[in-house]
């Protein structure tokens, strides 16, 4: 399923013909679409500036990524440099191309701007979203139609979150803790089942030799191989991220939450210390990374790693900060106090 529209090739080739001077700029913007970048930004906001805002970001992003993983498997569409040898893969990316995960994830900034309610926030969010999408086209890893699809899906998801998240959270918080955790587990299980159904129906699909041949030259110079099968690993990782963030939020709510205010040096210490802990966890899991061709084992590893990282970020590290008096608990304070619980209506 190629899903290539008229004008897709022209747009990539036109952007790439503008010259190499654009490459560092586009690589800078595309960096904002990687999990490591979002992890740094979301954790810093969550621990030191606005817990409610950081939590919204920590839930929205994995849900968007889960949807993207499912759609990429369902469409199993090629990346541009798989299709046309004239297109240079300035960066390489494994996995399928439709819709663009970077473009879809970038709509996070539009979602957050709806709560910040300031003109300059909207301007920055729109500019960042557009540039992240265009960077993927210039770098040769997505057709513009794939970027448009990512933007469209991400915006629809953001609208649904804005419209329904308050009611859903109110319903969830009305349940007993055990039932809250069971609901999150069940929802995560449904995500995995949906991916398994797609993988089952595509079990006999074989990547066209033309795609592999066209991609070979670009990948060989970068020590990469083309990911040539339907895989559960990306979906498992994103689902683990969602489950860890959601369970962490529920358990932290039971603890009464925390207040992000403090002196500048306290905020900085939280960010530096927290990120060091997160990257230690990431490095530990990455050290024992299984080979990509062992899809079942790789999926379990990804799920476990993303779960531990997000659960630690949302729940365990804030508890440590409170023990070290780097954060103060809001337990026992009046309900209107800053960030006591899940995001609520603004």
Your description of this structure?
This protein is mostly helical. The chain has one domain. The chain has helices spanning 8-16, 22-31, 35-48, 51-75, 80-83, 101-106, 108-116, 119-138, 144-173, 177-201, 209-220, 233-255, 264-287, 295-323, and strands spanning 258-259, 328-329.
Compact description:
Helix content is 69%, strand content 1%. It has 14 helices and two strands. A two-stranded antiparallel ribbon has the order 1-2.
Fold blueprint:
Blueprint: H1 8-16, H2 22-31, H3 35-48, H4 51-75, H5 80-83, H6 101-106, H7 108-116, H8 119-138, H9 144-173, H10 177-201, H11 209-220, H12 233-255, E1 258-259, H13 264-287, H14 295-323, E2 328-329
Antiparallel strand pairs: 1-2
Helix pairs in contact: 2-8, 3-4, 3-13, 4-10, 4-12, 7-8, 7-9, 8-9, 10-12, 12-14, 13-14
């Amino acid at each position: 399923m190629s899903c290539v529209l008229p004008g897709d090739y022209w747009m990539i080739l036109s952007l790439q013909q503008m010259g190499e001077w654009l490459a560092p700029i586009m690589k800078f913007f595309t960096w904002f679409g990687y999990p490591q970048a979002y992890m740094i930004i979301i954790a810093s906001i969550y621990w030191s500036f606005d817990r409610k805002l950081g939590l919204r970001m920590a839930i929205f992003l994995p849900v968007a990524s889960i949807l993207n993983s499912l759609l990429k498997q369902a469409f199993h569409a090629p990346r541009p440099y798989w299709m046309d040898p004239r297109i240079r893969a300035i960066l390489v990316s494994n996995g399928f191309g439709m819709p663009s995960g970077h473009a879809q994830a970038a709509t996070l900034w539009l979602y957050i701007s709806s709560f910040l309610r300031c003109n300059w926030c909207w301007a920055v969010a729109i500019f960042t979203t557009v540039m992240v999408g265009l960077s993927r086209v210039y770098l040769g890893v997505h057709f513009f139609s794939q970027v448009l699809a990512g933007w469209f899906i991400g915006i629809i998801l953001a609208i649904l979150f804005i419209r329904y998240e308050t009611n859903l959270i109110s319903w969830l918080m009305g349940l007993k803790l055990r039932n809250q955790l069971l609901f999150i587990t069940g929802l995560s299980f449904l995500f995995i089942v949906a991916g398994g159904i797609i993988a089952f129906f595509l079990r006999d699909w074989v990547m066209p030799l033309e795609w592999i041949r066209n991609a070979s030259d670009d990948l060989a110079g970068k020590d990469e191989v083309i990911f040539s099968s339907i895989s559960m690993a990306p979906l498992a990782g994103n689902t683990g991220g969602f489950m860890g963030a959601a369970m962490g939020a529920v358990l932290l709510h039971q603890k009464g939450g925390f207040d992000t205010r403090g002196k500048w040096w306290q905020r900085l210490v939280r960010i530096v210390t927290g990120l060091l802990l997160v990257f230690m966890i990431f490095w530990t899991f990455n050290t024992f990374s299984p080979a990509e061709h062992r899809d079942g084992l790789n999926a379990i590893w990804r799920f476990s790693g993303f779960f531990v990282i997000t659960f630690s970020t949302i729940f365990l590290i804030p508890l440590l900060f409170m023990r070290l008096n780097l954060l103060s608990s809001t337990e026992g304070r009046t309900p209107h106090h800053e960030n006591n619980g899940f995001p609520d209506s603004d």
